[in-house]
Specification:
Elements lengths: L1 E6 L3 H12 L4 E4 L24 H14 L3 E3 L3 E6 L4 E5 L8 E8 L21 E2 L2 H4 L7 E5 L3 H10 L5 E5 L14 E3 L3 E6 L3 E6 L4 E3 L2 E4 L6 H8 L3 E2 L2 E2 L12 E3 L10 H23 L1
Parallel strand pairs: 1-2, 1-6, 2-3, 6-17, 7-14, 8-9, 8-14, 9-10
Antiparallel strand pairs: 4-5, 5-6, 11-12, 12-13, 15-16
Helix pairs in contact: 1-2, 1-6
């Protein structure tokens, strides 16, 4: 059991972890090691670097700083968060039964997912057959035909939630290759999608080869799970593709915090570091009050 699990190893997540660890609490940072910052060639507007530094270098320095303080940092893809009797369990891809990551508090610091599917009919049917959370919405599709849009570990995680409940589950890869060494046997449709159709709810998927597939629901799990997917799984409030937080960086769910790009505003390193600091200090005070 950890005091705090931080999802995301960028400036916001690492900063929060540093403050919390230095206060004597047990911290785990889980990060796949990808994000917008790591693809930034040159940073010359961040305090303290007289010579421009690349995003990759900055991330590496942050990780070394965290490890030097004794923070546990693992490189795995997080695919979900769920409630447990003792706190929150963070689920990762290819997780064994012996690997359970449970904490009293979770900080979401994954940045923002800039690759949200842009397909005709998708937005119109959100909440009307289009879902972003299998854990939340699978019971509504008992004995029905559903599909999961995605081709990676995140999609597999959603499929695993749906298989015991739905009548059938299809993986929609939208023209991409599905991951190899899949842990489950599932029907795959690799055709390019033209649009989602229906009247009051989603009823059919039309593909670019003019074929179609009847469907009762579609679960979006493209790429890797991002901040909005985690928030929606937990029922946390989101607005304009950002996680809503209060002045203490807490979401609408108690003991779930968010910081960095995922909360909106200016997408700058300095803002991420500030919010990571704020989240860290608030969490420290809360954990100390519980100890007394």
């Amino acid at each position: 059991m950890y005091d705090v699990i931080i999802i995301g190893g960028g400036p916001a997540g690492i900063t929060a972890g540093i403050y919390i660890k230095r206060a004597g609490f047990k911290v785990l940072i889980i990060s796949k090691g990808e994000g917008a910052l790591i693809r930034t060639e040159k940073i010359e507007n961040y305090y303290g670097f007289e010579i421009p530094i690349s995003g990759k270098e900055l991330i590496e320095k942050g990780e070394k700083q965290a490890k030097n303080l004794g923070i546990e940092l693992i490189k795995k893809e997080v695919i979900g968060i769920k409630y447990t009797e003792s706190g929150f369990e963070v689920m990762v891809a290819n997780q064994s039964k012996d690997d359970r990551y449970v904490a009293k508090t979770v900080v979401i610091a994954t940045g923002v997912n800039r690759n949200k599917p842009n397909m005709k009919g998708l937005q119109e049917f959100e909440g009307k057959g289009v879902s972003y959370c299998a854990v939340c919405d699978a019971p509504f599709y008992r004995n029905k035909d559903v599909a999961v849009l995605g081709n990676g570990e995140y999609a597999i995680g959603e499929i695993e939630e749906l298989l015991p409940i739905a009548k059938s589950v299809t993986m929609l890869t939208n023209g991409k290759e599905p991951i190899e060494n899949r842990s489950i046997d599932v029907q795959i449709n690799d055709k390019k999608i033209r649009e989602f159709r229906g009247s009051n709810k989603i009823e059919e998927i039309e593909f670019e080869d003019d074929s179609s597939q009847k469907i009762d629901g579609v679960f979006i799990a493209q790429g890797t799970a991002g901040c909005l997917e985690f928030a929606k799984k937990l029922g946390a409030k989101t607005e304009n593709n950002n996680i809503v937080v209060n002045d203490e960086m807490q979401t609408s769910i108690e003991n779930i915090y968010a910081c960095g790009d995922c909360t909106g505003g200016i997408l700058q390193i300095s803002k991420a570091v500030y919010e990571g600091t704020k989240a860290g200090l608030v969490i420290i005070n809360k954990l100390r009050r519980k100890e007394n």
